[in-house]
Each structure stands twice: as structure tokens, then as C-alpha cells.
Amino acid sequence: MGSPESSPPRAAQTRIAKLREQIRHHNHLYHVLGQPEVSDSEYDALFRTLLDMEARYPALVTPDSPTRRVGGAPLEPFSKVTHERPLLSLDSAVTLDEVRAFDKRVKKDLAADHIEYAVEPKYDGLSVELVYDDGVFVRGATRGDGITGEDVTGNLRTIRDLPPRLAKAGPVPGHVMVRGEVYMRLPDFQEINRRLTDNGDKTFANPRNAASGSLRQLDSRITASRPLALTCYELMLSSDPPPATHEAAVTLLGAWGLPIPAQRRTCRDIEEVAAFHQHMLRQRERLPFEMDGIVVKINAHADQRRLGEKSRSPRWAVALKFASRSARTQVVDIEVSVGRTGALTPVAKLAKVNVGGVSIEKASLHNMEEVARKDVRVGDTVIVERAGDVIPDIVERVPVAGERRRAPFAPPTCCPMCRSAVVTEGPLHYCTGQTVCVAQLKGRIEHFASKGALNIEGLGEKTVEQLVDAKLVTDLSGIYRLREEHLLPLERFAEKSAAQLLAAIEHGKRPSLERFLFGLGIHQVGAHVARLLADQFGSLETLMTATEERLLEIHDVGPEIARSVVCFFAEPRNVSVLNAMKALGVEVQNVPRDTTAPARELPLRGKTFVLTGSLDRWSRREASQRIQDLGGKVAAAVGKQTHYVVAGKEPGGKLDKARQLGVSILDETQLIELIENAGAG
Ligand code: IVH
Fold first, then answer.
1. Which of 3, 200, 479, 536 is the most buried (most CB within 10 A)?
2. How far is CA 328 from the centre of its chain?
3. Residue 295: CB within 6 Å of ligand 1?
């Protein structure tokens, strides 16, 4: 345990006072005025610095410090630990030339021709000290300012990678001090943010913040619930003589059961270090954790000792940093892009910025809810970050002092490509112009012509692409306008193949209603729903006038399907395409009513039931199954077509609706009777 420094230096007093003033200012802007001027991560950094300084100079802690008043409750900081050996930081280099200069310098200082290096990833987490006495983990602390850190022993014990005892691979020294990094793997980081979002909590901006926030929890149970990882890269102190090289020391750590960097290497010279750097740069996109560079260490401990240390960093190591994968930039515009399925995605157009060596001009905002949640508007300053090889994300908005913000982004009410109406589904928005939208056209024609739909042979991907690119087909009805002279100039077409395609199109002009509906590619209408709709409505004309209520009466049709179908036929562009098809000779076949003859024998055939409340004898599913087995239909909502509403215990609004519409109401006993009689009949 460390003893607090007796009289804090003036500089520390001034710095602490300044930090408190800044934090109070930002608290006021955020909580009172609702106009923050810094990003959450910048605020967190200020707060953390103050916490660190107060841990180092407890004499300067005052009861009114912002750190004591988080959400009204005083925050008990961790107890202080003075490290037995300082946890130094590293000098950094950003170019290979700087590392070559480092190599030159050490060779000169050591009067050596060859220097061997140990290289490792630079993990982007937080540095910790671990102490083992007689092979047992007794204490762990954060790095803090390098001299004094916070005692987080209890929290570290919850990390699965950390062995409570060292494995006895030979004699274990009586006293060992190890340095490592606590970090969070990318999939775990994404998962934890998903969990936080589900609970309505604030998410972490990056894995490093997530690791640090999780380790520095006052309640170890919270730390235990966070998937933290650990890697150990320095044997700082050992009561037994340590191995001669860094590599041997790390291998020994591994033999003791401590997790060690898998991607480490020894390099015979600085050019091998350069090759490792290149290799890790490529790996960076693939590895499941964030690294912000590589660490280059002289391998021989004797050489390390000879070179010694400066006040804050060793002379025997250097960090070669990768370019940061996050940057600040401005949102120039928010556009909406239309995917092949009609999904509308907001995309932020950005003032060009270099992020980790890649020039970035746009970032996905995923969906309209996300835009609202992050409150990103045109003109805003934002932080973009690339994680993995995906399109960059907007991490957060950075408030700028005195900025005059534009109005919040308004979700589109019509498709930016074809102006068709938009249908929403949870946080997602879709264009309903499936038959006309250029963004969707190629995919839609291919689907329309596919085996499960109209089965038009010869209308595959390549042909469709040519037809759409040459503007020969501009909506779904266009395929029925094709003539030989349109096809002949196209690649891969000759007289015979053109005639074959035209014949196939002609041949498909009398599709069944079911296949035709499936082929239209109405959002949410797959083969199964298409069959249900065809069975229920019998003709395209009847379906076109169906209301949401009527659709909801069909078993298996929920509100999203119902809304999507109604929106599709409510879109005038779709209707004119359907009319055009009709004019061009397409005759969708009505469902012949008598093909369902065998079902007619079933006693509940033609009767539609709606269930509300719970039944004693059957679950809803079982009751539905029995009704269906007897030829009846079970719908989700009550309408004029409903024959019976079965009211169980605690029935819902469907019962009122049934009363309003004068639909027959059955209680459980009556339902059982009906089913049993019908079954016997
Ligand atoms: S060695 C005296 N090795 O980088 C040498 N550090 O400022 C001590 N880091 O705070 C550090 N990965 O948290 C070393 N393989 C690695 C590392 C590593 C990440 C961090 C460490 C330190 C910072 C350098």
C-alpha cells in the first residue's frame, strides 16, 4: 500500500482546481442547459483524469468535488496502491523511419552491430499490475499515473483469463510482479453495447472505454458480468533470477498459466520488425481485438538494463503506433440509400477525412431510430470510427460551442429513388415501389421471373442487367413490351434465343394468383403468405381492395404483413404497373373455388374463429390446431368475416369488437362442445 504524498505540489492543486471547474461547467451545460459542448468520451476523459489525480493526492479531495457527486451519491474511489516498480509508458513512433532511428541509437549506445527485438501487438486496453506471492494472486492495480494506481484486486479476480494461482511449471518464485493489459474483444464489445442498448443504458464508444469502465466498477458483480480479457507482456519483478530474454520471460509467464500475446515474435533485426509491422497492419482488420500499434522491445534483459530508463519511459522499447481509426469530421448531408430489397438506409455524407490511412466520405447511420438516438443532424461535428473492415460508424456527435444546429433529420416519407410511399417496420423503413423502383428493379425482375414465381426461362441475372441498363425495361410491366428488335442488339442474343425468351414471356402470361403475388415481391409476402392470400381472396381485384383489418383476420397474417400488403396496393405506381400488365395481356388466374372440394367435407370448413383470453383445457396453439384440423380458420383480429369469437379468461378488446359487430361469442365449454360434436360428426 502506498502512502499519500505529504504536501501536494502547487501544479497539482492548480490542475485539480481547473479540472473541477471544467467538469462543473460541462455538467451545467449538459444537465441544466441541455447544450453540451464536448463529446461524452471527452467528458469521461476529464472525469477520469480528475479521479486519477485525486487518488494520487487524497489531501486535495474535497467533499464538493464533482467526483463525489455522481448522480447525487458520493463515489467511493478505490484505495490507492503505490507500485513496487513504476509502470512506465512507452515512447511512440509513427513511422518505420523513426523505429530505424531508434535501432541506430541503441546500437550506438550498446556499441553493438546486431540487436534482437521482441515484438508484440500493442493492445488497446488498460494496463494493470498483478502481484503473486507464493504463486497466489494477492493484488492487482490499475496503472494510474505509473507510480500510484487503484487497487482493483476484487474486480480482477472476476476475469476468467486471470489464474488465481500460478501453475507450477518448475519452482514458482516467492514474489512476482507482472504487467499486462485488460481489454475487451470486439464481439464481446458489440454484444455488451447491444445489452446496454436493450436496457436503455448508455453504450461505450470503443472497446478500450468498455474495458476500463468495466474494470473500474465499484461493484465487482458488474465487472464479473462483463467479458474482460487479459494478456501479460512483462515480468517486472521476480524474487528468483529472471530469464535472460524478454521472449523467455513471456514464455515463462505462459507456462505459469498466464495469458500471453499469441501474435508475438522475435526479430533478428529492424527489417524483420518492419515486416512484422506490415503483417500486423494486415491482421488488424481480422483479429478480434483492437490494437493501436506494435511494441518493439530489445530482447536481451542485460541490454535493457544497460540502456536503463528515462523518467517516464524505458530507453529499450518503443511503440510503433498505427494510424488512429477514429477521427472528427463534419456531416455534410444525410442521404437515404435504397437497397435491392427496398430497405432505406440513412447514410451520412462527411467532409473528407483520413481514418486510419483510409479516406472516408460517408458513414452508415443504420436506421432512422439510430439517427434520432445519436441526434445526428446535417452540419454537426461527429466522431467516426472504423472497426474491422466495415463501413465506418458514427460513434457520437461532438457539440461545438456556439453552433446553430439545423432541424433534426426527418425520416423520408417517400422513396428517394422512385417517390413511392414508405412503410415502416420497427426501426426500419422500406420503399413500397417494388414494381417501379430503379434501385430494386433488377432484383425484382429476377425474382418475378424466378422458378417459384412466373418461371420465365432465359430471364436471368445477366439478361435482366442488360435490359435495365439499356433502359429497355423501366418497370415490371416492361418485360411484356419487349420485342425481337430490342433483344437482338444485346450481348448473347441471336434470333433464336430472342424468340425463345419472348415465347417464355408470352407463355407466362396466365400465372396463378399465388405465383403472381409471390412474384411481385411485396415486402413480407413470401411463398407461404402468397398462398394464404390467394386462397382467401381468390382474385387480384379482391385482394387489391382488402383492408388491414380484413387481412388480419387471416391466420398467420400479422400487422406487419397486413400493412405491407395494403401499402403496396395503395401505391398508385404499383397499380398502374398492374393495369399496364393487364393491358399487355397478362391474365392472373383466379383461384377456382371448387379445387378445395376435399376440404369442404370438414365440419368447420368456411368458419373463421378468433381466440381471446386463455383457455383451461388447451393452449391457444392447441385450440387453433384443433379448429384448423376440422377445416376452420383462426384469425388474429375480429372483423365482419369472423364467425365466432372464443372468449377465455381475461379476454381482450377483441371481445368488445365482437359484441360491436354482433359476432357469435363462445365460452370455453361451448368451444369444446363444438369441437367434440364436429369431430364426432
Ligand atoms: S510494454 C516499459 N507491451 O501501451 C514497457 N505495453 O504507453 C511497458 N501496451 O500503458 C509497456 N500492449 O498499457 C507493453 N505488448 C505491450 C503492450 C503495452 C499495450 C500499453 C500499456 C502502456 C502503453 C504504452
1. 479
2. 21
3. yes
Active site residue 122: yes
CATH of range 326-397; options 1.10.10.60, 3.90.1010.10, 2.40.50.140, 3.40.140.20: 2.40.50.140
CATH architecture of 10-68: Orthogonal Bundle (1.10)
* Among 94, 295, 310, residue to substitute to test ligand 1 (most atoms within 8 Å of Cβ): 295
Give yes or no for residue 274 having a pLDDT over 60: yes
Residue 183: what are its φ and ψ, rounded to 5°?
-145, 175
Q: Can you give the residue ranges of every domain in the chain?
A: 10-68, 80-321, 326-397, 422-441+464-595, 608-680
Cα(318) to centroid of ligand 1, in Å?
9
User: In angstroms, what is the span from residue 89 Cα to ligand 1's centroid?
Assistant: 7
Q: What is the pTM of this model?
A: 0.53
Q: What is the mean pLDDT of the chain?
A: 88
In the reported structure, the alpha carbon of residue 292 is separated from the centroid of ligand 1 by a whole-number distance in angstroms of 11
The grid cell for 394 is 458514427
Pairing of β 265-267 and β 326-338: unpaired
CATH number of 422-441+464-595: 1.10.150.20
pLDDT of residue 457: 93
CATH class of 608-680: alpha beta
Count of C-beta atoms within a 10 Å radius of residue 64: 8
Pocket test for ligand 1, best of 145, 181, 208, 212 (most atoms within 8 A of CB): 181
What pLDDT does 458 receive? 92
Residue closest via CA to ligand 1's atom 18 equals: 122
For the cut 90, the answer to whether the pLDDT of residue 628 exceeds it is no
C-alpha–C-alpha distance, residues 409 and 406, integer Å:
8
pLDDT tens track for 308-350? 998 889 999 999 998 878 889 999 999 999 987 899 999 999 9
Nearest Cα residue to atom 2 of ligand 1: 88
φ, ψ of residue 335 in degrees (nearest 5): -110, 165
Measure the CA–CA gap between 189 and 227, rounded to whole angstroms: 8
pLDDT tens profile 28-62: 776 666 567 777 767 777 887 888 888 888 888 88
- Quickly count: other Cβ atoms within 10 Å of residue 451's Cβ: 9
Q: Are 344 and 303 in contact (CB under 8 A)?
A: no
User: Does residue 317's CB lie within 6 angstroms of at least one atom of ligand 1?
Assistant: yes
Does 120 contact ligand 1 (Cβ within 6 A)? Answer: yes
Average pLDDT of 644-664?
90
What are 178's three cell numbers? 507482472
Domain 80-321 belongs in CATH node 3.90.1640.10: no
Q: Which residue is catalytic, options 80, 122, 633, 654? A: 122
Predicted confidence at residue 599, as pLDDT, reads 44
Per-residue pLDDT tens over the stretch 413-457: 999 999 999 998 878 899 999 889 988 999 999 999 998 899 999
* 202 CA → ligand 1 middle, Å: 29
